[in-house]
Write a structure and sequence with these properties.
Elements: E1 18-20, H1 21-28, E2 30-31, E3 48-50, E4 64-66, H2 67-79, E5 87-88, H3 93-97, H4 101-118, H5 123-142, H6 152-162, H7 168-185, H8 188-211, H9 220-230, H10 236-246, H11 261-267, H12 294-317, H13 319-335, H14 342-346, H15 348-353, H16 360-373, H17 399-402, H18 432-473, H19 480-503, H20 506-527, H21 531-535, H22 566-579, H23 592-606, H24 615-625, H25 642-646, H26 653-663, H27 673-690, H28 694-708, H29 718-753, H30 761-798, H31 809-824, H32 843-857, H33 861-868, H34 878-889, H35 893-919, E6 938-940, E7 947-949, H36 950-959, E8 976-977, H37 979-995
Parallel strand pairs: 2-3
Antiparallel strand pairs: 1-4, 3-5, 6-7, 6-8
Helix pairs in contact: 4-5, 4-6, 5-7, 6-8, 7-8, 8-10, 8-11, 9-10, 9-12, 10-13, 11-16, 12-13, 12-16, 13-18, 16-18, 18-19, 18-22, 20-22, 20-23, 22-24, 23-24, 23-26, 24-26, 24-27, 26-29, 27-30, 29-30, 29-31, 30-32, 31-32, 31-33, 31-34, 32-34, 32-35, 33-35, 34-35
Length: 1003
């Protein structure tokens, strides 16, 4: 080829000084000396190409070659295809024969660097040669079409892979300098286009390899190749190429992010890449296989660490790559936001068919990387204190200005609502740590939280399948239905084990514990900041850990809580509740500092509507607190409960717990009826545990004493509202249970007698369905009713007088009498069902607990009298029925105590009947219009002007703060004593007593 065709000519140096020919031969492996082409040349020297016939030239001064000539010679050498024709035999013939231009130049670059380090003389020649290599290399990258059939990307792949063990830094220098040369001489967009044409095909090949691999078969070569895009801050453009390659089309679905290179990396897991499979692990399993696979955990951990290192290097490579990476994550989360919706978790398979959302494997993989990035936010460095809580308060039109990448953060439901058309106060700018914190919480919501909900659903389905299989297989394990159920069971168990092992991988679990511990500490610090500190802030991160004790009463609510999304708290709850499903000894046990942080956060926010408006969220905090109850681990040690004994803020637990117990029912904060009882069940377990510790029992006593001193306060005292709701719940649950059991008995009798045999098939099926549904309801009511009665029994062992107050005593006595009569009286057979255990119906235990409550309160004359005055259920035979049952079930000491109680009730009843003789002709205006009993403390209601007894209206207002006669709002402070009427009644009663017999003669 003529030199006039050389496109590299414009790149030549104008210098006429020569370069040592021997050095040129050693580096470039070619010569222009014709005599070296002799076939008899010695093979002891390096193999060379003789280009004397290719380049017609005057070799010039002996021993040196001009730069222009050398540049021309390099160009001609790069254009050679049949190099064997010019070979002068010697050592290293493969290098001399190399036809791929970038590989040839790379080898020449390495030779130049090696010779320079071993032969320091002639530094100028080395620099000139180096410059020519880089100039030609950059030109090859810009004009790859000059080399048809020799794809540049394949050459780059080979160059990168051959540098695994040696020459890594020199190879990186070669890449760096070639790219820098391109950017020095071309416009940025043109230069970026050249890089993409060189490396996009390589990245496409890498993506294909990853998509065809799993965590066992993925090769480490992949991460080595990708490391060349992110390892050097001198060429951030390589990182930009990598990120740009992974960006799906705009306005795409969440599932499209799986089809990118990053998506392929994040999707490799124990779980399948797609929700519908195929499942590649736990194929060979038995029905007893419910364990973990530490070997798989180790492989997954190592793989996710490799992915984390890649993403971390992108984030630190340059501000541009950092911003692009954050935008990629933010857009990915936004595109997959529907994964957090309940309907999506219930219909995961349907969603996957239309590829709307990324898979569980992808989302968990992405979250695992973000969690590792959050390590500096956690103990001991605690950079979480630099997180600004106002991040999610920034409206969309200010996002770019303030550095908020997370999309629709402004729409997140906050801990506290903001009034309409009110702008939230936010910081002027947000740091990387703040962005990372909120993105990680959003990622957890869309990954772990969604998967935990799915895991719970899978656990229930697995139990149902096992029950069905056992029922069928017990008759004939080889019938077709049993075989089908076994096949379904194994498939379901495989999916269950894959998800379980993915959620429980220890390194991720540790990262979660530490991240949520840091989040809990941060939440407390944000909430407890003083108004003076907040007033002086322009940015709102806590900055330091104050370790304040929790206040007795919340006096100040920071505006920053109107920006913090509920999902921060919900995520912590999700993680703690997930841990409740595993035996003691799980990972969280080994991090005591996290127990203290979680405990403090729960106690603070659980009882504070000033900090969290949503009663569901506060009730779920109480549910999470159950995790810390005392349990026995496999090795015999106690589990987590030390916080109840040692935490400095433990004295706030009781008030906080009762506060949330009451708030889920109060006006304006009501929750769905069944959900209310689901929330209360763990609260009962906590109260039962607290009752084993004297300091907590004293907390209950103190609250009860405070309540008794403020029975007619504008806002009913906390403890009064609590026991009122306990009684309400017990009445409802036990009544519902008895009704359902009565219906179940009727259906069972009809089925047993053959009444169903003549019914049409659809009616028989409907009856079976009704029986099953009633059974579920009865079981639910019996469990909760038993728990409620148990709590009443515990409380009345220590706290009595408030139950005997005139506003409460009639309600509790009528409740106890009603249920005792139904369980021990003549009608008890109506509730006798088959398989009582199936419905959690234990009438003997309930009778014993009711009798304990009677005995606990028997010291009060007002209670004993109220028992006898219950006209609906009480009779002189009631406690005789109870005694017969107690004898039969082994009531022990309780039998004698109930006999004493019965005698006292009958004595007071007799006295009262004598008293009633005086009141038989009481004028109607002296009687309470609601209870029809003689008023002892009449009061006038402000709006209806009706006069009622103070105890009657006080009892009514505990549940309903309205006037019962016209529904107008009403509180106790608004009622007016009817002094004149009270004096009339007292005078009338005194006159009656004087004129009648002495009521005490029979005592």
């Amino acid at each position: 080829m003529a030199s006039t065709d050389n496109p590299f000519a414009a790149l030549l140096s104008e210098s006429k000084s020569g370069i040592d020919k021997q050095l040129i031969e050693d580096i470039f492996l070619f010569t222009l000396k014709r005599e070296q082409s002799s076939p008899n040349s010695s093979k002891s020297r390096k193999a060379l190409l003789c280009l004397a016939d290719v380049i017609v030239c005057d070799s010039g001064e002996d021993g040196v070659m001009g730069e222009e000539l050398l540049s021309h010679a390099i160009f001609e050498r790069l254009m050679l295809i049949d190099t064997k024709e010019y070979l002068v035999h010697g050592e290293g013939e493969d290098d001399a024969l190399q036809v791929d231009p970038m590989i040839y130049l790379h080898r020449a670059f390495l030779s130049c660097e090696r010779l320079k380090s071993t032969q320091p003389n002639g530094a100028t020649d080395y620099e000139k040669i180096r410059s020519l290599i880089i100039t030609n290399g950059s030109t090859c990258m810009r004009q790859p079409d000059l080399f048809p059939g020799q794809p540049i990307w394949k050459q780059w792949k080979k160059i990168m892979l051959t540098s695994v063990d040696t020459n890594t830094s020199e190879t990186m220098d070669f890449i760096v300098e070639c790219i820098q040369k391109i950017y020095a001489e071309d416009e940025p967009l043109e230069a970026l286009g050249a890089l993409k044409s060189n490396f996009y095909p390589l990245l496409s090949k890498i993506e294909t390899i990853i998509s065809q691999s799993n965590i066992l078969t993925i090769k480490s070569d992949i991460f080595w190749l990708l490391s060349f895009f992110v390892r050097d801050k001198r060429i951030p453009q390589m990182g930009e190429v990598l990120i740009d390659f992974t960006i799906p089309n705009p306005n795409t679905t969440g599932g499209a992010y799986m089809d990118t290179l990053f998506g392929s990396l994040f999707s490799l897991s124990i779980l399948p890449k797609n929700t519908n499979g195929p499942y590649e692990f736990f194929n060979d399993i038995s029905l007893e296989s419910k364990g973990s696979d530490p070997a798989l955990w180790q492989i997954m951990s190592r793989y996710q660490n490799d992915v984390f290192c890649l993403i971390k290097q992108l984030l630190v490579q340059s501000p541009t790559t950092k911003q692009k990476m954050l935008q990629w994550v933010a857009k990915c989360l936004s595109a997959n936001v529907s994964r957090g919706h309940l309907w999506n978790n219930l219909n995961a398979g349907i969603e996957n068919v239309v590829h709307q959302n990324a898979s569980d494997a992808f989302m968990l993989g992405l979250t695992s990387v973000l969690l590792r990035l959050c390590a500096p936010l956690c103990e001991p460095t605690m950079k979480v204190l630099l997180v600004d809580p106002t991040y999610c308060g920034v409206p969309d039109d200010e996002r770019e200005e303030k550095g908020v990448n997370m999309l629709k953060a402004f729409e997140e439901t906050a801990l506290l609502p903001t009034e309409e058309n009110t702008k939230r106060t936010t910081a002027a700018k947000f740091n990387f740590i703040t962005e990372l914190f909120f993105l990680t919480h959003k990622a957890y919501e869309l990954s772990y939280r969604a998967c935990i909900e799915r895991f719970a659903k899978m656990s229930r389905e697995l139990q149902n399948l096992q029950s069905s299989y056992q029922d069928v297989a017990s008759a004939d394990p080889n019938n077709e239905m049993a075989k089908n159920l076994m096949r379904m069971l194994k498939q379901h168990l495989q999916k269950y084990l894959c998800l379980r092992n993915c959620l429980m991988e220890p390194e991720n679990d540790t990262a979660l514990i530490k991240f949520f511990e840091a989040s809990a500490i941060w939440l407390v610090e944000v909430a407890l900041i003083s108004p003076e500190e907040l007033e002086s802030m322009h940015e709102f991160a806590p900055l330091k850990r104050r370790n304040k004790k929790l206040p007795q009463k919340i006096e100040f609510t920071p505006h920053t809580l109107r920006c913090i999304p509920e999902n921060i708290v919900d995520n912590i709850i999700s993680y703690l509740n997930f841990n409740r499903h595993f035996a003691p000894g799980h990972f969280i046990e080994f991090y005591p500092s996290s127990h203290d942080a979680f405990f403090k956060m729960i106690v603070l926010f659980m009882g504070a509507p000033e900090f969290i408006k949503n009663p569901h969220l506060r009730a779920k905090l109480a549910e999470a607190l159950e995790l810390f109850l005392k349990k026995q681990s496999a090795v015999g040690t106690t589990f987590l409960a030390h916080v109840f004994d040692n935490h400095p803020d433990r004295s706030k637990v009781v008030a906080s717990l009762l506060n949330v117990f009451v708030s889920i029912e109060m006006t304006g904060q009501s929750v769905q009826f069944e959900q209310k009882f689901n929330y209360r069940r763990p609260m009962y377990a906590i109260i039962e545990y607290l009752w084993t510790k004297e300091e907590y029992v004293q907390n209950f006593r103190d609250l009860a004493a405070e309540a008794e001193g403020n029975m007619e306060a504008i806002e009913p005292p906390l403890f009064l509202r609590f026991i009122n709701l306990l009684i309400n719940d017990a009445i409802f649950l036990l009544d519902e249970s008895l009704n359902n059991l009565q219906q179940i008995r009727q259906l069972q009798e009809a089925q047993a007698s053959g009444e169903w045999n003549n019914l049409p098939q659809n009616e028989r099926q409907q009856n079976l369905s009704n029986l099953h549904h009633l059974g579920m309801l009865a079981r639910f009511d019996n469990i909760l009713g038993r728990d409620t009665i148990n709590i009443l029994k515990l409380i009345t062992t220590e706290i009595k007088s408030i139950f005997c107050h005139n506003s409460m005593v009639d309600r509790i006595t009528s409740m106890l009498n009603y249920f005792l009569l139904n369980l021990v009286g003549p009608q008890k057979e109506k509730f006798k069902v088959k398989d009582k255990k199936e419905f959690e119906f234990d009438p003997a235990k309930t009778v014993i607990e009711i009798c304990h409550i009677y005995v606990n309160l028997s010291c009060s004359d007002s209670f004993c009298l109220a028992v006898s005055q219950d006209g609906r259920s009480y009779s002189s035979q009631l406690f005789s029925y109870a005694e017969n049952i107690l004898i039969r079930i082994g009531g022990g000491q309780l039998i004698g105590e109930m006999a004493e109680f019965s005698e006292k009730v009958q004595r007071l009843e007799k006295q009262y009947k004598q008293e009633l003789e005086y009141m038989a002709d009481a004028p109607d205006e002296y009687l309470d219009p609601i209870m029809s009993t003689l008023m002892t403390d009449p009061v006038i209601l402000p709006s209806s002007k009706v006069t009622v007894d103070r105890s009657t209206i006080a009892r009514h207002l505990l549940s309903d703060q309205t006037d019962p006669f016209n529904r107008a709002p009403l509180t106790m402070d608004k009622v007016t004593p009817n002094v004149e009427l009270k004096q009339e009644i007292e005078k009338w009663l005194a006159d009656k007593r004087k004129s009648g017999p002495n009521v005490n003669n029979d005592q």
